[in-house]
Write the structure tokens for this entry.
Amino acid sequence: MHELARFRDPRPARLMVQVLTARGIAAEVEEQGGEAVLWLHHTDQLDEARRLLDEFIANPLAPRFQQDAWQSSEPVALGEGQPPLVTGQWWASLGPVVRLVFIASVLVFASQWLWGDKLYQALFFPPQLADLASQPWRLFTPMLLHFNWLHIIFNLLWWVELGRIIERFQSSWQLLLITLVTAAISNISQFFFTGPDFGGLSGVVYALLGYLWLYGKVNPAAGYQLRKEIVVLMLVWLVVCMTGLVGPVANAAHAAGLLSGCALGAATGWWRRSRHYRD
């Protein structure tokens, strides 16, 4: 059996099982730690199941999905109060952690036109590591600082693309943990190389890349490995940034984020494969 997805609410998971069953794809739902885990019985049906899951997440209220549910079993009404994961809208399809960091980054960026650099000064990494004892938020908040439109757009696009995979198929807590741990590691690393004047979400973005890359390698049965093209593109960009051709870049944060994300991805992939995946 292979894990196809995790839902914060069991109702859409049960509906998805009925959709799959109507298409001849064997699946079941199992409760694990407050989440509904959707298991696929046969690996050779993984591609078709993933395609249906993506269509379902984009529009769970589509008549054909409701019809499949009626034909295969009892009707399941989504109704009001469904988790944002299955509302059918792009923004609402994002999990709470992805949305929180997205909104916080945009608001901090916009604050420059309201208060100048006052908020930025409060969120920069401190001049001395000892200052973190009295201002611990500064260990993480540099990830919210962006210095131009291209900087924030690039980072948020990749944050959404990579972060929602983890939040959708694992959990919000997992994404939050990865984000905080790798933000701290990448920020400390950059501080030792350049001092406290740096910012951006790219260290965490590279951590998410490394996490998903190694998680997929170690636990391929999960079914959400990153495409090779994405990994190659991001690694090429990492090297280009290190050449200095694109101006000042937090290269230490990128490298530390990537390495720490790889370590977390490999460890988590091994642990989940040994605990939750069955042949």
